[in-house]
Amino acid sequence: MKESAELLAFLLQTQTKLSRNSVKSLLTRGQVLVNDRMEKAYNFQLEPGFTVTIRREGAEQKAPFIGLSILHEDDDIIIINKDAGLLSIASEKENDVTAYRQLMAHVRTSDPRARIFVVHRLDRDTSGVMMFAKSEQIQQQLQNAWQETVLERSYIALVEGEVKRQEGKIESWLQESSTLKMYSSSRPNDGLHAITHYKKLQSNKQFSLLEVRLETGRKNQIRVHMQDIGHPIVGDKKYGSKSRVIPRLGLHARILAFTHPTIGKILRFEAQSPKSFFSPFR
Predict the structure, then answer these.
(1) Residues with Cβ < 8 Å from 122, sequence gap 6 or more?
(2) Which residues of the chain form CATH 3.10.290.10?
């Protein structure tokens, strides 16, 4: 190509015989290669000299992934959309299929010495956008400057009850009990400082759908803070939920936007909100 453009815009301009939805499907199914690498991000920035190839046979069907799909991959990072129910990484007591193990196998198909590194985690029953690093150096770089690197990190949460305020801020200090359950303290500096912002999207007498933005990223932060305001996340028995209107935890990591650790560009990834989250409002 001869000039800079976002990948989706470039494909729409060049694939004139295809509808917009068909072009998006090419990306979703992993049929678009940029410089021989599969690329799924609509806003991936193409530069002069880049080669874009379309494989008419979908690569996604051949991928051995269980419970995840790759949204973006380059020499430094992998961005995935994780399904609810898939562990990010195995714990000492669990040895199930994990996102980490599958991605390690994925990178080693081209280089047996390749490794991946966990940058942040999503709870097993939380779905959505998640990032891994391809080297320890990139992992440390991202983790050490996480607050400055991440420009947007937002979730969709289905919670119990009618949230009265249109938007709000929850602030506390989080600690972990001997039973590995997080809880809030209102005393300053009594634990890890945690700040959560929320905005109401929909509500009725029984449930509310919230957009939740993290200012800090602590273990179980959203789940604890929703319980703190009397609106636990649907399906979250650990933190006070008594309903199960959907067959999963009502929490989804929808958007992750950040500055790329080496090229310095802003990348933004979005995982579509589960349709089941809207079912209580129909």
Answers:
(1) 82, 88, 128, 130, 253
(2) 1-62
Fold of 152-252: Pseudouridine synthase (3.30.2350)
What does the block give as tokens for 275?
A: 């349709």
Q: Which residues contact 30 (CB under 8 A, 6 or more apart)?
A: 38, 40, 58, 59, 60, 63, 70
- Which residue, chain included where needed, has tokens 């209580």? 280
Sort 242 into a burial class: Cβ within 10 Å, 0-12 / 13-18 / 19+: exposed
Selecting among 75, 96, 111, 123, the annotated active-site residue is: 123
As a CATH number, domain 1-62 is: 3.10.290.10
State pLDDT tens for residues 17-52.
788 888 888 888 778 888 878 888 889 888 887 888
**Nearest C-alpha neighbor of 85 from the set 281, 275, 270, 251:** 251
Q: Is 83 a catalytic residue?
A: no
Position 186, amino acid: S
Q: What is the pTM of this model?
A: 0.75
68's tokens: 């995840």
Delimiting residues of CATH 3.30.2350.10 domain(s) in the chain: 152-252
